[in-house]
Amino acid sequence: MKYRKRIGLFFLNIFFILICLLCLIPVLYALGISLNGHNDLLSSNVSLIPQNVTFDNYRCVLFEKPFFLWFKNSLILSAFTVLISILVAVPGAYALSRKRFRGRKMILNLLILLNAFPAILSMFAVYRILKPLGLINSFTGLILIYIGTMAIFGLWNMKGYFDTIPEEIEEAGEIDGAGDFQLIWKIVLPLARPSIIVTAVMILIYVWNEYIFAVTFITSSGKYTLAAGLYALQATDYTRNWPVFSAASLLVSIPVLVIFFCIQRYMTSGLTAGGVKE
């Protein structure tokens, strides 16, 4: 029985490895294009291994295009959105998880309903709201849009995690003399750390890659985000350079990949990791 289980596990691992390799084909293809010295994406002789390897495309992105300006703008938007969304979502999620009050279910259902519609459907309404306030072509307006979307996501995501934390742990803290602030700061938040970190990173990924609102509400090239900057690289039909575009897209992905690898242990850690005394 154990031998048969090992054989099944072996073939299961092989299957998942093949799936991973299949998913890597577009990335490897983009890498091959970014290292190609010729803009021949649509030709029949393009392969995963470029014939004329060059790093000029990366040099062009980093030193001839305002890549670092786009990076700074995306970093500002991401940092403020993540910070404010988490500050709003964490206490809201805890209150909706622990407190029982009239209208609680209606609030939760309303938040789901607001988040269920595609963002593009609210484009005109958002424009009519931001225009009189002078928030078009403004980081503040874009941050408000992102917070309105991601704070609801963060609240629901962390509310589910708070539900899994046994209330007996908090009751034990109260018996030991912990006040409300100590209870939340020293017991609840450390237990919810994995959820908070993963939620923050998911918000970061959304803002980092967001394209529709960034292109629509940011009209000045000096305020372009990375997504809007990538769009600007391919904005005309006559100056498209696919190797440069591929190099830029890979460079945009690197920060998110680094952050993702850094938080892997939080994504796999369980509730008991924070609930057991050292």
From TrEMBL:
Signal peptide residues on this chain, from the entry's feature table: none
Entry GO terms, CC: plasma membrane
Start and end residues of each ABC transmembrane type-1 domain: 71-263
Molecular function terms from GO: ABC-type maltose transporter activity
PANTHER family the record matches: MALTOSE TRANSPORT SYSTEM PERMEASE-RELATED, MALTOSE_MALTODEXTRIN TRANSPORT SYSTEM PERMEASE PROTEIN MALG
InterPro entries: BP-dep_ABC_trans_perm (IPR050901), MetI-like (IPR000515), MetI-like_sf (IPR035906)
Compartments, record wording: Cell membrane
Family: Belongs to the binding-protein-dependent transport system permease family. MalFG subfamily.
Identification of the protein by name: Inner membrane ABC transporter permease protein YcjP
TM spans (from-to): 7-31, 75-96, 108-130, 136-156, 196-222, 242-263
Originating gene: ycjP_2
Membrane topology recorded in Swiss-Prot or TrEMBL: Multi-pass membrane protein
Pfam families associated with the record: BPD_transp_1
Keywords assigned by UniProt, alphabetized: Cell membrane, Membrane, Sugar transport, Transmembrane, Transmembrane helix, Transport
CDD domains in UniProt: TM_PBP2
Listed GO biological process terms: maltodextrin transmembrane transport
